[in-house]
Amino acid sequence: MNVLSLCSLLIGSSFLAAAVPASSPVETSSVTVVVSSLVSTTAAVRLYFYNTREGFLKSGKWAFSKSVNPGGKSEFSLPVDLPKGEWAVAITQDMNNNDKIDKNFLGIPTEPYAFSNNIRPTVAAPGFDECKFMVDGPGKVVSIVLKD
To answer: Domain ranges in the chain?
Structure first.
């Protein structure tokens, strides 16, 4: 390829890039997650935020996660900005600080856990649709009671 062809290709690419509109920023809304009835006032609480059915409760498939140290309190509030749409939250409290949720031989968590909408599963893990809430404007509050 000669220099003239290369220059034409680069200039053409620049015009093409300028013609394609940049993707608009994702609109977010403020959401406050209030977690109460912590089993321990010192053990870390991990919140997993999901926005897809397919990834719900699958390791590493959350949109993002946050870890909160309760600082001696049995309740805390966590403000987050979430893109508008359907969301669900799963929470665990790591009582032995090993950075994982411990389970018994049946796969049932042996450490405290909870889900948005305060879903209390009895036989199987809940589905996304049971736990989801809609983010469609500012000021949303999601209250979750931790289960031990």
So the answer is: 28-145
Q: Tell me, what's the pLDDT at 41? A: 95
Residues 96-148: pLDDT tens digits? 989 888 999 988 889 999 999 999 988 889 999 999 999 998 889 999 999 76
Fold (CATH) for 28-145: Immunoglobulin-like (2.60.40)
N residues, the chain: 148
Decide: 126 and 117 in contact? Cβ < 8 Å.
no
Strand 28-36 to 140-145 pairing? parallel
* Cα–Cα dist 56/68, whole Å: 21
Q: What mean pLDDT comes out for the span 46-54?
A: 96
CA pair distance 7, 29, nearest whole angstrom: 45
E strand or H helix at 11: helix 3-19
- Both tokens of residue 106? 């049946």
25-36 pLDDT per residue, tens: 778 899 999 999
Residue (of 44, 66, 49) closest to 146 by Cα position: 44
d(CA 116, CA 134): 11
Is residue 6 helix, strand or coil?
A: helix
